[in-house]
């Protein structure tokens, strides 16, 4: 284990290596000839490679990560594009299906409103949807929701308002006529109803089911189940609260343990001068960028469903990056990146679970920061343009919104709960954090790694608080345990639970 500062001083007085007690009298170099560790600093031997490759690797890694971040922000390609940016629908002929977040909001509001019968909730639902609307098609949909929750008159009034600005021959004009027909109880042509459902998804079905008894299966499916949703919300809220409290306790224990010297980090930072760890990071970032490029090209050639499959499968190919240490002949290279058993797999997994609890308060803090920033941004935009901007899009919603087959769901789940923990932990906490720790202290290295980890995700910039906070927490786990098993476990627990809950909630919403 890494010697404490006093132990290093004492060993120096005694003329022995602070790590292995090998006599160092008369030696000149900085490193112990017996164990290879640094004699004065509590650092391990430098990683394989050299200074120059370290500098090039770092520069390359940063440039590539910035490029990936730019691609992610400009909506390059890949998973988040699965559903496509719908909703816009324009004023022209074609109306795209509603985007996932817009539809999900309507589904949740409708179920809670139908369960409670609350008028204020109906007003709030319609107002929110109108604010989120990104085109005339969405305004028709908000009108349908108004007709459902506030009464037919509220719906008719809004439909008339949208109709006024629609060009002659717009498909939406036909859809508005169809909705009116349903409201009137007239016999509506089945083809028109089918078109309504196809173009407006949930909203089309909701409009078509108007007038049926609430207990009719095709209508209950759309408006019922509020109770199940409420129970899930309460349970999740309670679980989050309990994990938060437990996490604060673990954090306090960690601070006390570290400051009293009872908890000692197992991670041994390498002495500066090596490069293997950062080479793997640069290689991964390059591979990821290449993958994005291939997918962008594939989008022009393949169907959207096929692109999504390609994205899901090709991402596993990035595991090839971990052959690099072997390729350059660095024996035990993956061990340096944290691939070893630590104090035993079970103990490390346990530490990962405990560590994840400590990450929960960090995660919630990150989420709170993101929320505040989003509100501030919306206020600034409204002040500058006079228009209230729609809420930011969460790409996760497009992915889990139920437009996937069961096999695709399994693939996405594996990617989140297996690929991400293994690959992202190895690259960021294994490679990048290790390299930075040869020069920087724990906090600076952890923050920097977390920022790089955050911007490589396809979330809107201001919504990255939670990911960055988790990245910071996982880096502390790497410092504590040395082995990556703990941070991989924490990462896996988080992704599996969050994605599992989202998918389950989507099932409830139908
Ligand atoms: Zn030694």
Write structural notes for this entry:
Helices cover 68% and strands 0% of the residues. With 510 residues, the protein is mostly helical. The protein has three domains: 1-45, no CATH class; 51-77 and 229-509, no CATH class; 116-224, no CATH class. The longest helix is centred in the C-terminal third of the chain and has 41 residues, at 345-385. Residues 76-93 have low confidence and may be disordered. The protein binds zinc ion. Residues 17, 19-20, 22, 32, 34-35, 37 line the site of zinc ion.
Strand content: under 5%
Order of helices and strands: HHHHHHHHHHHHHHHHHHHH
Number of domains: 3
Report the biggest beta sheet as strand number plus sense, adding barrel if it closes.
none
Write down the overall geometry. Answer: elongated
Distance between the termini: 54 Å
Number of helices: 20
Poorly predicted residue ranges: 76-93
Bound molecules: zinc ion
Q: What integer value in Å does the Rg equal? A: 28 Å
Structural class: mainly alpha
Q: Tell me the number of strands.
A: 0
Helical fraction equals: 55-70%
Question: What is the arithmetic mean of pLDDT?
Answer: 91
How are the secondary structure elements laid out?
Elements: H1 5-14, H2 51-73, H3 100-116, H4 119-132, H5 136-149, H6 152-165, H7 171-184, H8 190-208, H9 217-223, H10 226-259, H11 276-301, H12 304-317, H13 324-327, H14 333-336, H15 345-385, H16 395-400, H17 406-437, H18 442-455, H19 465-481, H20 485-509
The chain binds zinc ion.
